[in-house]
Write a structure and sequence with these properties.
The chain has 615 residues and is α/β, with parallel strands linked by helices. It folds into four domains: 30-157, NAD(P)-binding Rossmann-like Domain (Rossmann fold, 3-Layer(aba) Sandwich), CATH 3.40.50.720; 161-199, no CATH class; 200-307 and 323-443, Tetrapyrrole methylase, N-terminal domain (Cobalt-precorrin-4 Transmethylase, domain 1, 3-Layer(aba) Sandwich), CATH 3.40.1010.10; 452-610, Methyltransferase, Cobalt-precorrin-4 Transmethylase, Domain 2 (2-Layer Sandwich). Helices cover 31% and strands 15% of the residues. The protein has 20 helices and 18 strands. It has helices spanning 38-49, 66-73, 90-102, 127-139, 185-198, 203-217, 242-245, 258-275, 278-281, 312-315, 341-348, 369-372, 377-380, 393-409, 428-439, 451-458, 505-514, 544-550, 585-593, 606-613, and strands spanning 30-34, 53-58, 78-81, 109-114, 143-146, 159-164, 171-178, 325-330, 360-363, 384-385, 413-418, 444-446, 471-476, 494-499, 522-527, 535-540, 558-562, 599-602. Strand 4, helix 4 and strand 5 form a beta-alpha-beta unit. Residues 326-543 form the Tetrapyrrole methylase domain. This is Tetrapyrrole methylase domain-containing protein. Pfam families: TP_methylase (PF00590).
Length: 615
């Protein structure tokens, strides 16, 4: 039994074509479009934006689309004579291709498009002639598209949209393409419009800004953009020393090599691309990342992360000076509707006289953009997001605490946003003690729903259930300094919820097996709990690593549930697990998972979506 999905025919291999620049010995890559109608105009514009040389075959005796005529007159596209009858057969096509090729007009052509097969006025080319064209073009190793003839075409044109840049008339690099694979072309246009309308207007600018940032941080070195897909966002890395943390800009000042510094920068770009709000990414630069911090330079830290110097004016504070406040806020698993009422007030209040008004927002990296979007737009630019690039968690934590103390010492109210609950692996305790010792401020801890409980609940997994799970244990996959966390021993009636464990999944599985957890025990990975793109992967302890490797990339953040509770509500349910003979467990699991050996649930349930739609 394997964990790989079975291919289901009917899809397209969707590629993004962009021509290689021409040289003195190679002609520019070109596309040939035959016909002078509206479809030719649309295809020509798309090819021009992609950087292709466009050659259009037109007839002097047929009407031209005004845009086609304009682009020919402006020299944007090249014209060749093409006046074949709509019933032209194989021999006619062969002679035309031969003559055109001999004249050098097909140099560099890779793609050919026949457009007069659509019913758009005038005479329409018949299917026999279209097939003759296809046969001759294919014989010459051209890739063929024939309008309204998908079975004769090597490729099709998707319904596309290119996004604008904010505050500019120029276009961004961001394009979206949608295809129904010839099933519902008109519907594809509507779906594309709705997808574009649902995306933030800052999306195009965010892509452009991240592209510039990548080029700057890697020093202009050429890399394949798609190679970033192989970067695993949640993989354990070396925790950087203080010297290394701040030597990314000048690697020669430490044992931090240029290659290692570049790799760390690029991992950081990958992470902020995943976590940061799009409107924040739209203006990101190397000098503005998590302002005042950047991934290349930061203010110096004291010799110890836990020895922050106390400014003298804090020790003898004037009685007339307003004392600041620091609040630690749990933002729940991610969906804004699962915020507490007080959390919503703290994020949205605009009245400076209100006790809920916040002067400075300090956010963890994992707090999703949907939560940060609740902060009024005019104040959102001042949000500081933790600079937790790989290996820099300790330094980033210290930095945010220093910023909080500095602002509070000026009489400001600081909101420290944390995903889940501040006191459940949120490092809230150490912040409470630091703020008390250094600034003399008693923090206000505002609890939030922890993903350790809310995540399984939204995924339909009860962490306790009579007859199945009598207790629940919450642990972490990452201990202090990046070490692997400790695990509780196996008990049949126990549910284990692991936070921050995906990065160490292989070692976690090994630890589970070492602690007596059966290889066939159900396990579930709940990714982006409560978000629209939530994904739940369920299988067994022994299979989870291979299953996850066979699926599309992990969607952080994720938490792991281990135990019989994972399967107890599926289908008709199974509430008698604790009363059953353990020898029957493998058969029970096999029946639950079926022949494939795992299950994947993409998105929120229909019932959850219906509930959210009514809000």
């Amino acid at each position: 039994m394997h964990a790989y999905p079975n291919p289901e025919p009917g899809a397209s291999l969707i590629l993004a074509f962009h021509p290689v620049p021409s040289t003195s010995t190679t002609p520019p890559q070109s596309i040939l479009l035959l016909g002078a109608g509206r479809l030719t105009a649309l295809r020509s514009f798309a090819a021009l934006e992609a950087g292709y040389r466009v050659v259009v075959g037109v007839s002097s005796s047929q009407p031209w689309d005004p845009e086609v005529r304009y682009r020919i007159e402006e020299g944007q596209i090249e014209r060749i004579d093409w006046d074949l009858a709509v019933d032209a057969g194989a021999e006619v096509w062969r002679k035309w291709f031969a003559a055109t090729d001999s004249a050098g007009q097909l140099d560099g052509v890779r793609l050919v498009v026949l457009t007069d097969t659509v019913a758009a006025g005038g005479r329409r080319r018949d299917a026999v002639s279209a097939r003759a064209f296809r046969d001759e073009a294919a014989r010459r190793r051209f890739f063929v598209n024939i309008a309204d003839h998908p079975t004769l075409s090597d490729y099709s044109f998707a319904s596309t949209h290119r996004f604008d840049l904010l505050d500019s008339s120029r276009k961004s690099p961001l394009q979206v393409a949608l295809t129904t694979n010839s099933s519902a072309c008109r519907l594809a246009t509507r779906l594309r419009r709705e997808l574009v309308a649902a995306m933030p207007k800052s999306a195009g600018s965010a892509v452009a800004a991240v592209g510039r940032l990548r080029d700057e941080l890697r020093g202009g070195a050429a890399t394949d953009d798609d190679s970033e897909e192989t970067l695993v966002l949640n993989r354990p890395v070396e925790q950087l020393t203080r010297a290394k943390s701040w030597a990314l800009d000048e690697p020669s000042s430490s044992d931090w090599s240029t290659e290692a510094a570049t790799a760390t920068r690029m991992r950081y770009v990958s992470q902020i691309s995943e976590y940061w709000p799009l409107d924040r990414l739209a203006t990101v630069t190397a000098n503005s990342l998590s302002a005042p911090s950047t991934p290349t330079r930061s203010p110096p830290l004291s010799s110890s992360y836990h020895d922050l110097a106390v400014p003298s004016d804090l020790a003898l504070d004037s009685v007339t000076k307003k004392k600041g406040r620091i609040l630690l806020l749990g933002t729940g698993p991610g969906n804004p509707l699962l915020l507490t009422r007080i959390a919503h007030l703290l994020l949205t209040t605009l009245d400076p006289t209100s006790p809920f008004y916040i002067d400075l927002f300090l956010s963890d990296k994992l707090v999703p953009s949907h939560i940060l979007d609740l902060i009024p737009a005019e104040r959102r630019k001042g949000v500081v997001i933790a600079r937790k690039y790989p290996g820099n968690a300790e330094a980033a934590q210290e930095e945010l605490m220093a910023l909080a103390i500095e602002a509070a010492s000026q009489g400001k109210t600081v909101l420290r946003l944390k995903q889940g609950d501040p006191f459940l692996y949120g490092r809230g305790g150490e912040e409470v003690l630091r703020f008390r010792a250094v600034a003399g401020i008693e923090s206000v801890v505002v609890p939030g729903l922890s993903s350790s409980l809310a995540g399984p609940a939204v995924a339909g997994i009860p962490v306790t259930q009579r007859g199945v799970a009598e207790q629940v244990v919450v642990c972490t996959g990452v201990g202090r300094g990046g070490r692997t966390g400790s695990l509780a021993t196996y008990e049949r009636g126990k549910t284990l919820c692991v936070l921050m464990g995906v990065a160490r999944l292989e070692s976690l599985v090994a630890g589970l097996l070492d602690h007596g957890y059966p290889a066939h025990l159900p396990i579930a990975l709940v990714e982006r709990a409560s978000a629209p793109d939530q994904r739940v992967v369920a299988t067994t302890v022994s299979r989870i690593v291979d299953v996850l490797a066979s699926l599309p990339a992990h969607r952080p953040p994720g938490m792991i549930v281990v135990g019989w509770a994972v399967m107890c509500l599926d289908g008709a349910g199974d509430m008698g697990i604790l009363d059953a003979d353990p020898a029957t467990d493998p058969a029970r699991v096999s029946q639950w998972l079926g022949a494939r050996g795992y299950s994947v649930r993409d998105g929120l349930s229909d019932e959850w979506q219906g509930l959210l739609a009514g809000v």
